Amino acid sequence: MKIIMLGAPGAGKGTQAKRIAEKYGIPHISTGDIFRANIKEGTELGLKAKEYMDQGLLVPDEVTIGMLLDRIHQADCKNGYVLDGFPRTIPQAESLNKALADMGEAIDFAIDVDVPDENIVNRMGGRRACLKCGATYHVEYAAPKADGVCDACGSGLVLRDDDKPETVQKRLTVYHDQTQPLIEYYKGQGVLHSVDGTQAMEAVFESITGILGA
Ligand code: ADP
Ligand code: ADP
Ligand code: ZN
Predict the structure, then answer these.
(1) 132 CA to centre of own chain
(2) Ligand 2 atom at minimum distance from 139 CA
(3) d(CA 153, CA 88)
(4) Which residue has the CA at smallest separation from atom 18 of ligand 2?
(5) Which residues, including other chains, have CB under 8 Å from residue 28's CB and lie 6 or more apart?
(6) Ligand 2 within 6 A of CB of 136
(7) Does an H or E element contain 136, and which?
(8) What's the burial of 1, exposed, middle or buried (CB within 10 Å: 0-12/13-18/19+)?
(9) Burial of 160 (0-12, 13-18, 19+ CB in 10 A)
(10) Contact, 157 vs 130, CB < 8 A?
(11) Buried-exposed string 13-46: b where 16+ CB fall within 10 A, e elsewhere
(12) At 133, is the secondary structure helix, strand, or coil?
């Protein structure tokens, strides 16, 4: 099963993608997590990505597409995957389509987690991230057991630099300009499904499993 998560930054794509990955036994592939891991390790790719991420801009397609295609050709992807944060531009979607078509494959589901901009600022302002293991919390809606400490690995939690209000506005503008057109693109391919992302996390997950099936 090959699944794409669509939706604004902070809509809950990552939260839902992790649960989908667990339930269906497929890898969760987040391009944002891959970039952050590279930044932490100080790789050349990380240095390049950081320039853009800090400004709330997209990392250029020529960097992002190759990285994602390498990842989905790894052995653990042979029964499918859930992509979180890719594609984010029409050229990314077209490259993915072409790479899959070359292998006689296609995306099965594109799930749009729909959340209006008004709710996004609150979601992002309260998001706390563990940069060590990638776990995500929310101060109000998904609080860790101990304040500021990751339940999963015990590391300190941070407010991501790009989750500060100035950058969130920029990321929303970029989303509407460059990523939202993908909703029509996948509708045209007959694989688009929308869920109401303003529901509680559990209800969103039920809507999604209703689409994906048992
Ligand atoms: P969020 O989960 O809040 O939507 P991500 O972790 O997915 O954020 O992405 C963080 C940043 O990484 C983005 O703002 C962008 O700069 C970069 N990024 C992630 N995925 C892509 C992509 N597919 N194309 C270009 N840039 C990306
Ligand atoms: P994305 O990957 O789309 O950027 P996340 O999954 O990281 O979004 O969610 C953004 C923030 O909102 C996180 O702090 C997360 O805990 C919280 N969150 C996710 N889904 C919901 C929901 N349905 N209701 C309330 N808060 C949510
Ligand atoms: Zn952690």
Answers:
(1) 17
(2) 14
(3) 30
(4) 12
(5) 17, 18, 20, 21, 81, 82, 84
(6) yes
(7) strand 136-138
(8) middle
(9) middle
(10) yes
(11) bbbbbbbbbeebebbbbbbbbbbbebbeeeeebb
(12) coil
Q: How many residues does the chain have?
A: 214
Taking the whole predicted model, whether its pTM rises above 0.70 is answered as yes
For CA atoms 4, 11, 182, 84, give the dihedral sign: negative
- Pairwise CA distance, residues 61 & 183, whole Å: 19
Pocket test for ligand 1, best of 38, 47, 58, 136 (most atoms within 8 A of CB): 58
Do 29 and 68 touch, CB atoms closer than 8 A? yes
Ligand nearest to the CA of 136: 2
Residues 28-59: tens digit of each pLDDT: 999 999 999 999 999 999 999 999 999 999 99
Give the position, in ligand 1's atom list, of the atom nearest the Cα of 87: 23
Catalytic residue numbers read 13, 88, 127, 160, 171
CATH architecture of the region 2-26+79-116+178-212: 3-Layer(aba) Sandwich (3.40)
**Residues 6 or more apart whose Cβ sits within 8 Å of residue 199:** 207
Neighbours of 145 (CB within 10 A): 8
pLDDT, tens digit (0-9, with 9 covering 90-100), for 147-184 = 999 999 999 999 998 999 889 999 999 999 999 999 99
